[in-house]
């Protein structure tokens, strides 16, 4: 899933671009904080990796992937 970058300059661009990006891509968000969303939904992260999947398009390419299970 797309998510909020840890890099301040990239976050600045993600926040600027999100209103347009969300409209163009049917609600897809660039600034989600994936771990906190999972925790609020009642999940516990087993494994989580993050990174840029395309260096040239950093505001659009910071992603989170991994596994989460229902919290006990």
Helix percent band:
25-40%
Question: Looking at the structure, what is the overall shape?
Answer: globular
* Order of strands, widest sheet: 1-2
Question: H/E order of the elements?
Answer: HHEHE
Largest sheet, in brief, is: 2 strands, antiparallel
Find the count of extended strands (DSSP E, 2+ residues). 2
Oligomer: single chain
Radius of gyration: 13 Å
Q: N-to-C terminal Cα separation, in Å? A: 24 Å
Class from secondary-structure proportions:
alpha+beta
Q: What does the average pLDDT come to?
A: 94
Query: Helical stretch count?
Result: 3
**Beta-strand residue percentage:** 25-35%
Structural descriptors:
alpha+beta; 3 helices; globular; 2 strands; 39% helix; 72 residues
Description:
- By secondary structure, the protein is of the alpha+beta class.
- Helix content is 39%, strand content 26%.
- The chain is built from three helices and two strands.
- It has helices at 8-24, 34-40, 58-61; strands at 43-52, 62-70.
- It has a two-stranded antiparallel ribbon.
- The longest helix has 17 residues, at 8-24.
- The mean pLDDT is 94.
List the helices and strands and how they pair.
Layout: H1 8-24, H2 34-40, E1 43-52, H3 58-61, E2 62-70
Antiparallel strand pairs: 1-2
Write a brief structural summary.
With 72 residues, the chain is an alpha+beta fold.
């Amino acid at each position: 899933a797309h998510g909020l970058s840890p890099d301040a300059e990239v976050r600045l661009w993600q926040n600027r671009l999100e209103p347009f990006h969300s409209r163009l891509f049917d609600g897809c968000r660039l600034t989600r904080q994936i771990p906190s969303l999972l925790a609020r939904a009642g999940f516990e992260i087993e494994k989580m990796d993050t990174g840029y999947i395309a260096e040239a398009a950093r505001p659009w390419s910071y992603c989170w992937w991994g596994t989460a299970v229902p919290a006990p």
